[in-house]
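FYI - complex with zinc ion, inputs then prediction.
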Amino acid sequence: MEPRCSGCGLRYEREAGYFLGSIYLNYGGAIVAGLALHLGMEVIWHAPLSRQVPVIAATILLLALGAFRHARAFWLAFDLACDPPGPEEFAPPRIATAIAEPASDGARR
Ligand SMILES: [Zn+2]
C-alpha cells in the first residue's frame, strides 16, 4: 500500500496501528457472509454440516483476503468523514516534487 495519495498527498496511515480497525471490519464482514452462506445452504439445499464447513471456511478465507484493501479504504473513508484531515497530514504530490527538485538544483549552480 502506498504511504500517501499520489493526487493530494494525504498520508494514509494517520497514526500507528491505524488500520487495525479495518482488520476487525474485514473479519466481521467475512463472518457475516459465512453465516449467510450457512443459512442459505441449510434452508435451500439442506446440506449436511460436514459439507458446509469446507465451503464456508474457503469462502470466509477468500473473502477476507479479497476484501483486505477494500476494508482499509472503507475504514479510511469512514475515519476521514468523522475526523477530517488537517493540513499537516498532506504533503506535496510526489510528481510535483520530482519535477521541482531538478529545477532548483540547476538554479543554484
Ligand atoms: Zn488524494
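The pocket of zinc ion is lined by residues 5, 7-8, 10 (CB under 6 Å). The chain is about 70% helix and 0% strand.
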